[in-house]
Amino acid sequence: MEIFHSLEQAAARRGRSVVTIGAFDGIHLAHQELLRRVRERAAQEKAASVAITFDPHPLEVLAPEKAPKLLTPAAVKIELLKKSGVDRLLILPFTKEFSHWPPEMFVEEVLVKALRALAVVVGDNFRFGHRAAGTVTTLDELGRRWQFETQVLPGILIRGMPVSSSQIRSLLEEGKVSPANRLLGRPFSVRNAIETGLGIGRNQTVPTLNLAPYSEMLPSTGVYVTWAKLGGTLEEEKGAKNPLRSVTNVGYRPTFGERGLGVETHLLEKWDGPTPATLEVSFLYRLRDERKFDSPEHLKAQILKDIRRAEAYFRRLQRFRVAFALPDAK
């Protein structure tokens, strides 16, 4: 996948294109359908498939107090878009000046001059241009003027829930990772560097790997069954199996009087070697709320119960995979 960071870079590539546009936070199932349709149409037309997105998220510029915590930070979003199979990604810097472009200017400068679009595929709630004045009707009218086709996809419902980034955030805020995962089409994950803890887990409860402070979207506080993917030193030097079965606590460690929100992962599989540099945690199932215990001993007893429940979850998961001849997660 070619990545462009300006209209000038994109315009330097010859040929026509089929385009989709969006913030693409989460790359959920509705995004994936847009990308599939773009690839399909581009193949039919022997054109390039192009995704346009923005950096930073538009609300970080227009209304910082309303800007959402991201489901997929920029680097992760790029990885997922690359896996989607689109030919090109245009990341437009979102500035105050850019936000003042009227819909007509956006279409002419971006879709017509830079990308030479022959078709544009968007969702039915697509808005663009200054003050979101452009709608799918606007896009269709401008497409007729500039001779490109507008294809509008209806929204997707799964078990009565709309597939959208905001819906997924709402579910995660309630700790409902299983329905959030259904809308994403994969487990919700967070990735960050590992920081050295205070030794509380190793010395008083169970050993954990601790994520460095993370400013983007997390599930609500609680204990979860997770996959853990190790990166950096351990993976490179020891060839660790990935992902590893694990249990993760998202919370404030009230038993020990701590205040900062943390993510602590206990691996259910034995591994040796130095601490890995990074950790990616994929949330599968919520076990319980975070609670304050009377003593580290009581907390450890509960953690051991959590571990037994997590192991039972993975046994059920493996039986399901065997029954339906599904590939193992590893």
What do these coordinates show?
The structure is a single chain. The model is unreliable at 233-240 (pLDDT under 50). The two termini are 26 Å apart. This protein has a six-stranded parallel β-sheet with strand order 1-4-3-2-5-6, sandwiched between helices. A six-stranded antiparallel barrel has the order 9-10-13-12-11-14. Strands 7-8 form a two-stranded antiparallel sheet. It is built from twelve helices and 14 strands. It folds into two domains: 2-158, Rossmann fold (3-Layer(aba) Sandwich); 188-323, Beta Barrel (Elongation Factor Tu (Ef-tu), domain 3), CATH 2.40.30. With 330 residues, it is α/β, with parallel strands linked by helices.
